[in-house]
Structures are given as C-alpha cells and as structure tokens.
C-alpha cells in the first residue's frame, strides 16, 4: 500500500520561506508523476507544481513561478517543495501526490 506523508508546514510571516517534504512508502517514485497541490478555504484544489511522467518536464502554476521549486530525492523516496517569498495568498493545505495516491496534507499559513 502506497503511503504519502507531508511535513514542513507551519506559520510563517509574509516574505518568509518554508520547505515541504513528502515521504513516500510502499512504492518507488520512479515511473510516476509526482506533484504538489493546495487547497485554500472555500476554494478548489489547485495544482502547484509537478514532475510530469509523460514528458519528464517540470511545471509550475503561474502564481508560484519564480518563488517555488519542486525537487525529488529518489534515494530517500521524498518529494520536496521549497517555497520562498510567501504571501497570504499561499495560505492553504498542501498535498503531495504520486500517481493516483495522495497524502493527508500539511497546513501552510502565511500571516504577520
């Protein structure tokens, strides 16, 4: 059974940084698309960034380009999301996915 566990969320001031981690167990990451999504209160879940399995590309939502960086460590079976220059608009529950599996999410709150 594939399990994904996110960590690294928290409360940060505007302009601050956080690094989210998503540890995968029960599967290797190789061969699957991996991604970060987020859902703010009252809003739909949106894609933030992903590693595409089909073309090997890395994609970012326009709202996070230049501020967020996705990376992965296939030895540690972990997906990361480095988030810099955070704003209140980034406040959300952040989820990772691997193929069709999802984690439970980690809360990111940006507030002064």
Question: Can you describe this structure in just a few lines?
Answer:
By secondary structure, the chain is mostly beta strands.
Plain-language structure description:
With 112 residues, this protein is mainly beta. It has no helices and eleven strands. The protein has strands spanning 3-7, 10-12, 18-25, 34-39, 46-51, 58-60, 68-73, 78-83, 92-98, 101-102, 106-110. The strands form two sheets. Strands 2, 4, 5, 6, 9, 10 and 11 form a seven-stranded mixed β-sheet that branches. It starts with a strand and ends with a strand.
Write the layout of secondary structure elements.
Elements: E1 3-7, E2 10-12, E3 18-25, E4 34-39, E5 46-51, E6 58-60, E7 68-73, E8 78-83, E9 92-98, E10 101-102, E11 106-110
Parallel strand pairs: 2-11
Antiparallel strand pairs: 1-3, 3-8, 4-5, 4-9, 5-6, 7-8, 9-10, 9-11
Structure keywords:
single chain, 112 residues, mainly beta, seven-stranded mixed sheet, four-stranded antiparallel sheet, globular, 11 strands
Q: What pattern of helices and strands is seen along the backbone?
A: EEEEEEEEEEE
Shape verdict: globular
Largest sheet: 7 strands, mixed
Secondary structure class reads mainly beta
H/I helix tally: 0
| Distance between the amino and carboxyl termini | 40 Å
Tell me roughly what share of residues is in helical segments. under 10%
Radius of gyration: 13 Å
User: What's the rounded overall pLDDT mean?
Assistant: 95
Count of strand segments = 11
What fraction of residues sit in β-strands? over 45%
Low-confidence stretches: none
């Amino acid at each position: 059974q594939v399990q994904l566990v996110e960590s690294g969320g928290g409360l940060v001031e505007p302009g601050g940084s956080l690094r989210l981690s998503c540890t995968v167990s029960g599967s290797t990451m190789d061969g699957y698309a991996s991604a970060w999504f987020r859902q703010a209160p009252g809003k739909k879940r949106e894609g933030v960034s992903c590693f595409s399995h089909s073309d090997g590309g890395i994609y970012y939502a326009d709202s996070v380009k230049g501020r967020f960086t996705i990376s992965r460590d296939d030895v540690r079976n972990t997906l990361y999301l480095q988030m810099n220059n955070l704003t209140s608009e980034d406040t959300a529950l952040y989820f990772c996915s691997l193929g069709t599996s999802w984690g439970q999410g980690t809360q990111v709150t940006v507030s002064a």
